[in-house]
Automatic annotation (TrEMBL):
<dbReference type="InterPro" id="IPR007197">
    <property type="entry name" value="rSAM"/>
</dbReference>
<dbReference type="GO" id="GO:0046872">
    <property type="term" value="F:metal ion binding"/>
</dbReference>
<dbReference type="InterPro" id="IPR036105">
    <property type="entry name" value="DiNase_FeMo-co_biosyn_sf"/>
</dbReference>
<dbReference type="Pfam" id="PF00148">
    <property type="entry name" value="Oxidored_nitro"/>
</dbReference>
<dbReference type="InterPro" id="IPR058240">
    <property type="entry name" value="rSAM_sf"/>
</dbReference>
<dbReference type="InterPro" id="IPR000510">
    <property type="entry name" value="Nase/OxRdtase_comp1"/>
</dbReference>
<dbReference type="InterPro" id="IPR034165">
    <property type="entry name" value="NifB_C"/>
</dbReference>
<keyword id="KW-0408">Iron</keyword>
<dbReference type="InterPro" id="IPR006638">
    <property type="entry name" value="Elp3/MiaA/NifB-like_rSAM"/>
</dbReference>
<comment type="similarity">
    <text>Belongs to the NifD/NifK/NifE/NifN family.</text>
</comment>
<dbReference type="GO" id="GO:0051539">
    <property type="term" value="F:4 iron, 4 sulfur cluster binding"/>
</dbReference>
<feature type="domain" description="Radical SAM core">
    <location>
        <begin position="494"/>
        <end position="732"/>
    </location>
</feature>
<dbReference type="GO" id="GO:0032324">
    <property type="term" value="P:molybdopterin cofactor biosynthetic process"/>
</dbReference>
<dbReference type="InterPro" id="IPR005980">
    <property type="entry name" value="Nase_CF_NifB"/>
</dbReference>
<keyword id="KW-0479">Metal-binding</keyword>
<dbReference type="InterPro" id="IPR003731">
    <property type="entry name" value="Di-Nase_FeMo-co_biosynth"/>
</dbReference>
<dbReference type="Pfam" id="PF02579">
    <property type="entry name" value="Nitro_FeMo-Co"/>
</dbReference>
Length: 899
């Protein structure tokens, strides 16, 4: 199950058996289903089916209540059948049980016989179908219904020339495509079930209460004398197989085939129909097959990029996985909510072969699983595409993994009933959806999404000078003055303050997303003095404590900078948290950071909101051909790019980010490393371009040869060459002449680095300390959301957080603190009882809480979190805040003891 050591399903990847029964009987002419159970069961199924198929769905209910549950529900069921016949006059009634009816032992087969004995209605066929929700999923319910239909129909064993076609759950559009194939071979067939018209009906002038389409009971009776049965299902157990029943009891040969999705399985069906009928394969299917193969060739290079999650009913997962394997898309996760161990046995070898060929790494095949597990493994296995129902949309929204909606149910789109994925034509449509989703995701991640995110309305930057000037005017005068004042005390942006004011570089950003040929990062280096080196990596909390300590020893410290040793935006969460902590402590500090600019379009707006006033961007070329010589690779959104493509991606993002930042009044400095024979003749063009995009100052730096880097043997430009170039470029924009090319952990003025005095600040034993478990009391009505007022709680859900895992421990019953507005103010005894009940908890999560209990809880050291969101997410967020506060207290206490 989803949670380790807990027998718990979180967001199931299946639906209950009665859902499958109702779906199956909608393919029977004149049929209606009555659910023997509570009214909620039929409402749930109607809602699911109606929103997917966009058709009116009628399901009767025996409306079992407490009385029927205790004394038996036979009277309810018989009364329900009577009313159903009176109102609808159906030809067939399916009597499907539910969890409640099965749990109390209702014998619907006997009740059906009793009904026949006591009622004169020979034209109505009653078909009992045992289908408890806990007995399986909608998949088993569907096939159990088909088996019940053939078992309860009086068969005509006289031989005929018909072919029985029994299908796994497919869409109405797929049903029509299958019928078209059969008719093209001129086959006289009996289709079980036939949902083509009943669940995707044309508009009718007069509404029909009963399904007018579908396969009639009279036709089903002829199945016993048919020439053969073709059962389109791979994974259904024989005890639920209608084809197996017909073969065992009437000798009708049963051919079990995979759903005809993809080249191999469509070929198998077409070839079998040819053998059975002795007819030639129709020309149109030969042409369709050729088009499908051609389409596979056209899209194979894109399909190979897909790392696919496929989830749903076993037959859907199996057939779709086989199609993906054919087109070269790697299924990294196959998952079904049904119990189906055969899925792994059938697909493991093929998956292993493709994984080895594509170097795709690990893959998983799960059965009896839920969406919590699917989400977990989709992230672990770096999936970039999902195929299934709309139930996966939460993962799509949360993690940005595109979802191809192809199976029941689809609640957030129109047209689920018209999705066709069978046959050659349907396979092309499914493959095109997969390919186009991969392409769309790539496009969205690049220019369009970046432009839309950062350059709309007030953030929009036009090329015209007047627009840029207008946006500068839009910056508040107070902020403008503040930035100007801060620039005067920034040692890197003001030559006059270089020897007066100090800065501290906090090395909290070890990762980098580009590889420069002149760079080599070091994390434990006390000897070298250059960018990219540090003696330690700090956490955000350690960075705050180090700033506080250095600030107490250095009165002229005015600037906090983040300059590596990697890239500040490649480590954005650490950067963001560090700036937030320091800003809360010192609102007047100047924030500055250095970046290669690759991720600026994503985070530029965040930097503005965080209060960053000065940004340094390293731009070594504005010509991708030259940039390709400077950069070994660019790692952008999980994909590594090389050569001119890498340089172009980096340049576009640098210029987009620069333009946005300067439009918001941020002071931007551009660093340029002068590389002899590569960009030394191109730097003036770089300076002109960055000036055009709003840069304030450029810093042309000499290369520092680093042993182990690609350019370690590159000859240096002379001091004369460097100064001449600076002077020349100074005609276009202000130049920086006082840069010391500092370490990532530099402290002090530019002339007097004192970082050695403050090194090894972080605790080296921290990793060995076991993190404590935290407990939270959650106020919840639903058990899924934090959605209840503290005062209205009669029981708390107690959750534990440890090692980033959230677990439900127990429910604790308590007296309600508040039963109404008039009583809430004088309930001291009750709040005391509540305090005792949750005194072992670190925090309380509630929708709302009054001032009096809030203060009481805080006085006992119990944090209160007011929120409305999923419990698991809320507990994680609360735990992180508690851990941060505990750590801050711990470090503060240690520092007080040292002082």
């Amino acid at each position: 199950m989803a949670e380790d050591y807990v027998n718990l399903t979180v967001n199931p990847c299946n639906m209950c058996m009665p859902m499958g029964v109702v779906n199956a009987f909608y393919g029977i002419k004149g049929a209606m289903t009555i659910l023997h159970g509570s009214q909620g069961c039929s409402t749930y199924i109607r809602r699911h089916m109606a929103t997917h198929y966009n058709e009116p769905i009628d399901i009767a209910s025996s409306s079992l209540t407490e009385q029927g549950t205790v004394y038996g529900g036979e009277k309810n069921l018989i009364k329900g059948i009577e009313n159903l016949i009176k109102l609808y006059n159906p030809e067939v009634i399916a009597i499907a049980t539910t969890c409640l009816a099965e749990t109390i032992g209702e014998d619907v087969a006997r009740i059906s016989k009793t009904f026949y004995e006591t009622h004169d209605c020979p034209k109505v066929k009653l078909i009992p179908v045992p289908s408890p929700g806990y007995g399986g999923s909608q998949y088993e319910g569907y096939f159990r219904a088909l088996r019940a239909i053939v078992e309860n129909t009086e068969m005509n064993e006289e031989k005929n020339n018909k072919i029985n076609i029994i299908t796994s759950p497919i869409s109405p559009a797929d049903t029509r495509e299958l019928k078209e194939i059969l008719e093209a071979f001129k086959i006289d067939y009996i289709l079980l079930p036939d949902i083509a018209d009943n669940l995707d009906a044309p508009r009718q002038e007069k509404y029909s209460r009963l399904p007018y389409g579908g396969t009639s009971i009279n036709d089903i009776a002829l199945m016993a004398g048919a020439k053969a049965t073709i059962e389109l299902s791979t994974l259904i157990k024989e005890k639920y197989s209608a084809g197996k029943y017909l073969e065992d009891n009437f000798g009708v040969k049963n051919y079990r085939l995979n759903i005809p999705r993809g080249l191999r399985d469509t070929d198998e069906l077409i070839n079998l129909l040819q053998r059975i009928t002795g007819r030639e394969i129709p020309k149109k299917y030969k042409e369709q097959r050729g088009r499908y193969i051609d389409a596979m060739i056209d899209s194979h290079k894109y399909n190979a990029e897909a790392r696919v999650v496929i989830y749903g009913e076993p037959d859907f997962v199996y057939s779709t996985a086989r199609l993906c394997l054919e087109i070269g898309s790697m299924p990294v996760l196959l998952a079904t909510g049904s119990k189906c161990q055969e899925l792994k046995e059938l697909l493991n070898e093929e998956l292993k072969e493709l994984s080895e060929n594509l170097f795709a790494g690990e893959y998983k095949i799960l059965d009896n699983t839920d969406f919590k597990n699917i989400e977990k493994y989709a992230l672990e296995l770096s999936a970039n595409l999902m195929i299934g129902s709309s139930d996966g949309r939460r993962i799509e929204e949360e993690h940005g993994i595109p979802l191809v909606r192809m199976s029941f149910p689809i609640h957030d789109r129109i047209g689920g009933q018209r999705l066709m994925t069978l046959g050659y034509e349907g396979s092309i449509k499914l493959m095109d959806s997969i390919t186009n989703s991969i392409l769309e995701a790539k496009e969205k991640r690049y220019r369009k999404s970046i432009y839309d995110k950062f350059y709309k309305e007030e953030g929009k930057v036009m090329d015209k000078k007047s627009n840029i000037e207008f946006e500068f005017e839009a910056v508040q005068e107070e902020t403008k003055i503040s930035i100007e004042e801060k620039t005067k005390t920034h040692p890197c942006f003001s030559c006059g303050s270089a020897h007066k004011y100090a800065r501290i570089h906090l090395p909290i950003a070890p990762k980098c997303n580009i590889s420069c040929n002149y760079c080599l990062r070091k994390y434990d280096c006390p000897n070298e003095s250059r960018p990219g080196v540090t003696t330690e990596i700090l956490s955000p909390i350690e960075a705050l404590e180090k700033y506080k300590y250095v600030k107490s020893k250095m009165d002229n410290l005015t600037v906090v900078g983040i300059a590596g040793p990697g890239d500040s935006l490649a480590n954005f969460e650490q950067t963001k948290r560090t700036l937030q902590l320091i800003k809360n402590y010192d609102k007047d500090v100047t924030f500055c950071l250095s970046t290669n600019g690759l991720m600026l379009p994503f985070y530029a707006n965040d930097l503005v909101e965080l209060g960053v006033t000065h940004v340094t961007i390293t731009i070594n070329a504005v010509d991708p051909k030259i940039g390709a010589k400077v950069y070994k690779y660019v790692d952008y959104l999980g994909t590594k790019y090389i050569g001119e493509e890498a340089a172009e991606i980096l340049l576009n993002n640098q210029l987009l980010g620069l333009k946005f930042l300067t439009s918001k009044g941020i002071v931007c400095k551009i660093n340029i490393v002068m590389l002899k024979g590569i960009n030394d003749g191109h730097i003036e063009e770089v300076v002109k371009k960055v000036k055009e995009y709003g840069a304030t100052i450029t810093n042309i730096m000499q290369l520092i040869p680093v042993k182990g880097s690609v350019f370690e043997e590159m000859p240096l430009v002379s001091n004369v060459e460097l100064m001449n170039l600076r002077k020349k470029c100074g005609e276009h924009i202000e130049q920086m002449y006082h840069c010391k090319q500092c370490r990532a952990d530099a402290i002090g003025t530019l002339e007097n680095d004192q970082s050695i005095k403050f090194r090894n600040f972080s605790s080296k034993e921290e990793e060995n300390i076991e993190k404590p478990a935290l407990r939270f009391a959650v106020a919840s009505k639903s058990g899924m959301l934090v959605d209840k007022h503290f005062g209205h709680v009669s029981e708390f859900y107690i959750y534990e957080y440890k090692d980033e895992i959230v677990s439900l421990i127990e429910k604790r019953k308590i007296d309600k603190y508040c039963n109404g507005v008039e009583e809430c103010d004088d309930e001291e005894d009750k709040i005391t009882k509540i305090m005792r009940a949750i005194e072992d908890c670190n925090g309380v999560l509630a929708l709302r809480i009054g001032d009096m209990p809030l203060n009481k809880l805080k006085s006992k050291g119990i944090e209160v979190f007011i929120t409305y969101e999923r419990i698991e997410k809320a507990v994680k967020n609360a735990a992180k805040e508690v851990l941060i506060k505990n750590k801050e207290k711990e470090i503060s206490n240690i520092k007080e003891e040292i002082v």
